[in-house]
Amino acid sequence: MSSNDISSVLTENRRFDPPADFVSQARIKAADLEALVKQAEQDYEGFWADQAKQHVNWKQPFSTILNADNAPHYRWFEDGVLNVSYNCIDRHLAEKADKTAIIFEGEQGDVTHISYQQLHDEVCRLANGLKSLGIGKGDRVIIYMPMTAQAVIAMQACARIGAIHSVVFGGFSAESLRDRIADASATALITADGGNRGAKVVELKSAADKALEERCDSIEHVVVLKRTGHDINIQAGRDVWWHDLVAGQASECEPEWVEAEHPLFLLYTSGSTGKPKGIQHSSAGYLLSAIQTNLWVFDLKDDDIFWCTADVGWITGHTYVAYGPLAVGATTVIYEGAPVVPDAGRFWKICQDHKVTVFYTAPTAIRALMKFGDDYPSSYDLSSIRLLGTVGEPINPEAWMWYHRVIGRERCPIVDTWWQTETGANMITPLPGVTSTKPGSCTLALPGIAADVVNEAGESITEANKGGYLVIKKPWPSMLRTIWGDDQRYVDTYFPKFDGKYYLCGDSARKDEDGYYWIMGRIDDVVNISGHRLGTMEVESSLVAHDKVVEAAVVSRPHDVKGEAIVAFVICKDERPVGADAETMVQELRNWVGEQIGAIAKPDDIRFAEGLPKTRSGKIMRRLLRTIARGEEITSDTSTLENEQVVLQLQGKA
Ligand code: WT7
After folding, report:
1. Where are the alpha helices (DSSP H) in 392-448?
2. Which residue, judged by its Cα, is nearest atom 12 of ligand 1?
3. Is residue 10 over pLDDT 60?
């Protein structure tokens, strides 16, 4: 297909077969897939047991596969014993101690290569340091760091001693950090003096200090990495510099051998209430799917250099930066900064300089970089890249085609991977050496993943292209185990329908005539901003927490780079602000939400009215608000509204 054809082809019937040279070297070929699918269908537990024996290095083997006695709290391989850090590092030392495990590039251009041996030594030193502070198995450790090799070292050190880490994205505010520390009752916080992002310093330590002012009595120790070197406050007795903590520590640390179900980490994510959920993952099941998908979906081999651009603050940065690529013995690239520093060629320069072979990013990043045109990517040598991936939201076909043509140079398969914080690893995705792809579709479920689209009654929808609930009908090893401290919320959120048998992921989807999945959007009050999940309720609660606000409703509208943009409708305590007063109030509220949650949650658009449109029963008419937010014509009947003027105000017409 020539590049001229591409933009003129408007239908989504395009199909791209895996290139022959990719197929011939792929780990999973058509016959392999067929055999795996067959085994998973005929002997589900046997399939997973084989996978777990093949991929995970066990200290003590398991004898039970799946325990569903306390469903939907499932337990996998429960009498097996292992250590995840051992699986990511030590298992490679005999053969590839000197191989580069991590290539780190700072925003300012500093590059560090860390071999598996060096990684082992650094992880052990920090693990010993944490132990010297009294941190051990089951303790919660919050990691609030810039995207550096040390963030991964911190995660691995926790895994090594059986401590449960919870990484909080460095872009989250002090308030958000505090909520997570309090919810997890964490005893230690690992942070840095700052990080480099967008040619500015991210003030992590001062945010951490602020967070610790209230409700964080559980924190006994704060470990501080020196990254930027600028002045920060060090509180004697509580804070210790990372370099001081590890100085003199041994570079050997016997792993804490833990049971398969021991929690490896918590990761907070948004739901349909104001309170984020601490998604709890296991050790063995999570590790298994991380390994399996890095091998199958990203086709990782010994000589691959894998760059997944996600921050470790998100699940993608856990499974495809910090754990999976290491567990399969590949080289993982970590970049600290923004994609446009010093210019929009930075990603492509990194791919060229480090000879990246597999590149995985989000549609929002692709759309943002696409706007800068073809010249940036075209001026770099991207010939090392052999496979591309996307994650986080449906990719629009235009961005898919650009990625394919300009980055993949029409020779790389693209894997559009559907999954969630809760699923731990890729679930519905092409296998790059087997699956023909269609721009915008995440294609088919992996073997062993019982995905389906069902109707309200839980029946499979067999009619092509008819939408329904996307569900997973059987438990799988890397699924979340619970919501930290709230088993009931876990059951209510993920198993509310269908007799509690199917996992309800919160997305709607359709299957086309080939059985390919197309994700249609969320069914709950969750929006997707730049591939990051945010509950509209969270933004609403933060707005109403402002002392000049009485009520707020938050919806989203499509945005050409971010996917969705936040629109907030706000009722103020005093008179409705207009003109310059409204502008000042908008700024004040945007900054407020930024402080309360983080910059990604700042509404793009804030509108003031004297009331919100409500039904007779007092329910906010969100559908109407969405129509208004999109600037579409209102077709529903608004005459039943108490105050029709409100709609005109929200539309900006009064
Ligand atoms: C939600 C999960 C998984 C890591 C990144 C986000 C949406 C994710 C895709 C995709 C269409 C996607 C879904 C999902 N999503 N990947 N390939 N195609 N939609 O993790 O924050 O847990 O969000 O992101 O809506 O439910 P998350």
Report:
1. 397-402
2. 393
3. no
